[in-house]
Amino acid sequence: MSTLVNDISRGILKENPVFRLLLGMCPVLGVTVAVDNGLGMGVAATIVLLCANVVISMVRSFIPKSVRIPCFIVVIATFVTMVDMVLEAFVPPVHDELGIFVPLIVVNCMILGRAEAFASKQPVLRSLLDGIGVGIGFTIALVLLSAVREILGDGTISYFVGELNVMGSGFDPMGVMTLPPGAFIALGVLLVLVNAFFRKFKIE
Amino acid sequence: MEFGNLMAIIFIYILVDNLVLHQFLGICPFLGVSRKMETALGMSMAVVFVMTMATVVAWLIFHFVLEPFDLMFLQIVAFILVIASLVQLVETVMRKVSPALYQGLGIFLPLITTNCAIMGAALLAIQEEFIFIEAVVFAFAAAIGFAVALVLLAGIRERVEESDISERLQGPVVTLLTAGILSLAFNGFQGMLSL
């Protein structure tokens, strides 16, 4: 039982893909201008990661070692295509906002990394839990970063159908936060805070 | 198609819409292999080589296979397979033809498969509806833009390494902040040119 709990919590805290391993950074920096974009991207990547982990874990004993990477990539690409179509059909505004970063989930090193390091060696249930954990960790990181950027850059928090004005009317927005440089700087500062948090609670 | 248009594409994708600093593609190698100037140069050359070839092949496949047979939904699967097999092919050919070049670039080639800048350039060339010659020039310029960003960051990081920075800021944090300032500088090119 404790291994199963550990499988979930590891991806969220100890091996958080964004804060600890710095994997899959392109969407992290690219889409986090608004909270709903960050959440949408997080959920999309989580679904792909979850499905890919389960399928790869199921077929792990049939895949010859020498061609495993192309096999993983085809599995991942299939799920990315499905997620891309579903987003386009049901939530076209989110699909347009995320743009090129939806098809690019296929080359997200976080997903290939989990397939290679975990799902190709572990049973289905553990791979599923690992996918859930890493996916949640990734989504939390995206939402945190996009909240920082949107609150400082626009003074709002958007939630798909509208936006909440959190800073009041007298707020002078820091425009740079919504521009590309803001992504690098905000993530850098957030990393300092997260590292301090980890050190304080002794999570290693 | 005019000559001026091609020149515009070159300047836009090296300076204005820089793949790394403005569109956030290829961040992993940007942060990962920029510690030493030598590796940064090797990676840059490998990217210039593979990105140009991959975009050209992806463009041809999209316009001569996927589009006529109405298979556009296979775009993602087709492109990633093209890139993965192209990288493998380049690696094999290079090892046979030019072992010296292989020594220099070989170790970077497997990393390139998961470099989202390569896939991103192939997708952008389709999305922007470039004609063939524009796609070639675009891919080359985008790759040079990637190389410029990577080499600049590597140059700065080599100096940062030797300077005295607070313990809390060491490692990825100072790299991200440096990249942020670099991106701020490139932001100055915004709006200078557009297609």
Give a description of the structure:
The complex is a heterodimer of chains A (204) and B (195). Chain A has 204 residues and is an all-alpha fold. Chain A has one domain. Chain A is 65% helix and 3% strand. Chain A has helices spanning 2-12, 25-30, 35-58, 68-90, 92-98, 109-119, 124-153, 180-200, and strands spanning 156-158, 163-165. Chain A has a two-stranded antiparallel sheet. In chain A, helix 1 (2-12) runs parallel beside helix 7 (124-153) and helix 4 packs across helix 5. The radius of gyration of chain A is 18 Å and the shape is globular. Chain A starts with a helix and ends with a helix. The model of chain A has no long low-confidence stretch (mean pLDDT 89). By secondary structure, chain B is mainly alpha-helical. Chain B has one domain (38-186). Chain B is 73% helix and 0% strand. Chain B contains nine helices and no strands. In chain B, helix 8 packs across helix 9. Chain B is globular, with a radius of gyration of 18 Å. The mean pLDDT of chain B is 88. The interface between A and B is large, with 42 and 40 residues.
